[in-house]
Amino acid sequence: MRPTVALAAILLTATAAVAQQTPARSPATPPAKDKPAAAKAADKSADKASAAPAPDALAAGLAALESKDFSTALARFNAAFNAGAPDGAFYLGRMVELGIGVEASFDKARVLYLAAADKGSAKAMNRLGLMHYRGEGVLQDYAAAQELICEAAGKGDADAAFNCAGLFAEGRGVDKDPAKARAWYEKAAAENNIGALNALGFIWRDGLGVDRDPGKAADYFGRAAALGNPVALFELGAMYEAGLGLPPDLMKAHVHYNLAAARQHPGGTEALARVTAGLSPEDVTKAQAEAKAWRAAR
């Protein structure tokens, strides 16, 4: 059973986090009516954050976080949670856990995650589940990890679906079940989760609980490679080199190994040298030009 946290406790924690970013007013500070225009604008912005609908406040918090305006991000996430968006507390927790804009505190972050999970945040459930899986600040407990992570997966969180699949694949907290693992990987892959795309690539390439299908493996690796993932780029290069699931093509193998090596895949440089030796100088030049022109989908 997931523990709950009183709403007042989380509001105090979140407010304290934001307060750390705001210096206390000096006794000499002029009254509000004498504030300069910039200060009045800041007050209006803060009031607007508190009044904003939950999705708007959450989006504003993420935008502020992206632009490294951490005090605004903290305020927006707090406002989002107060307005009914559980993920507001999750993102506050991430900032507190990682020390982004506030002093890092694992214990305070966990309180925020618990509050978010209590209100239904799948992201927070997944993070709490990983804590139990790894034994981070709590006893390692695979059963508790599975309950939290797979509940989050059931709510549609792609990262949680990937993690839930891994639990079924490994038999951690549940009986080992390759079919259920594959089903959860497929749900995560539908959201372009790179880990799930690669996992399915290996499942179909190696016949893990299924009949081998290199063509399906190439499709999954291809989707992850298009997103710039070095593992998928390398595996796709290997499939082109071997003609496994794809027509043999040393130039395409060269392109993919080159891209994988540039992204620091540990086997990329050696594989690149191997296929380079089998190509003409002209083909190497063409392959290098193709790699230079390549762009990831995101």
Descriptive overview:
- This protein is mainly α.
- It has helices at 7-19, 37-51, 54-66, 70-82, 87-98, 106-118, 122-134, 142-154, 158-170, 178-189, 194-206, 214-226, 230-242, 250-262, 268-276, 281-293.
- Mean pLDDT is 87; it is low at 1-46.
- It is globular, with a radius of gyration of 24 Å.
- The protein is built from 16 helices and no strands.
- Residues 1-19 form the signal peptide.
- Keywords: Signal.
- It comes from Chelatococcus caeni.
- Residues 32-46 have a biased composition (Basic and acidic residues).
Whole-number mean pLDDT? 87
Structural class category: mainly alpha
Count of discrete alpha- or pi-helical segments spanning 4 or more residues: 16
Strand segment tally: 0
Largest sheet: none
Percentage of helical residues?
Answer: 55-70%
Using brief descriptors, characterize the structure shown.
298 residues; mainly alpha; 16 helices; 68% helix; TPR-like_helical_dom_sf; Mitotic_Regulator; signal; Sel1-like; Sel1 repeat family protein
